[in-house]
Amino acid sequence: MEIAVTKGIKVSVVAEFQPFYSDPERNHFAFSYRIRIENHSDSTMKLLKRHWYIWDSIGVSDEVIGDGVVGFQPIIEPGSYHEYVSGCNFKSDTGKMYGFYTMERVLDGKTFLIVIPEFIMMVPYKLN
Questions:
Q1: I need a surface site. Which of 5, 13, 71, 96 has the fewest CB within 10 A?
Q2: What is the 3-state secondary structure (H, E, C) of the chain?
Q3: Which residues of the chain have pLDDT under 50?
Q4: Contact indicator for 11, 115 with CB cutoff of 8 Å
């Protein structure tokens, strides 16, 4: 698990290889990742945008910018969390992602960036 804390917002990431959706003989490797965003601040927060940087081990990179996460712009009260699962496909057996969320403090509309920690996605046989 990878963790980053910014301005009282804790972002935890766990990635997992998805063999059922992968086809290594055709250079298709599917991964899922579960993200938990915990609000340890004193303010209600709204997640407005996401910004991802994505690389695989053969040098292919991508940048993804969009509103919310998996179709939502969750509002996260102090002491609560939002969790979601998403995925990424690579043409190699190893890749990585990191980025940030743009969050808004609901009370006054102030926005700021929250770090999404870098995490590695790797097929299990590479660990041996």
A1: 71
A2: CEEEEECCEEEEEEEEECHHHCEHHHCEEEEEEEEEEEECCCCCEEEEEEEEEEEECCCCEEEEEEECECCECCEECCCCEEEEEEEEEECCCEEEEEEEEEEEECCCCCEEEEEEEEEEEECHHHHC
A3: none
A4: yes
Residue 79 is predicted with a pLDDT of: 97
Q: Partners of 14 in the beta sheet? A: 34
Q: In what order do the strands lie in the sheet with 9-17?
A: 2-6, 9-17, 29-39, 81-90
Tokens representing 47 are: 């997640």
Residue 54 confidence (pLDDT): 97
**Bridge partners for 66 per DSSP:** 50
- Residue 28 is predicted with a pLDDT of 96
Beta partners for residue 54, in sequence order: 62, 97
Note the pLDDT of residue 115.
97
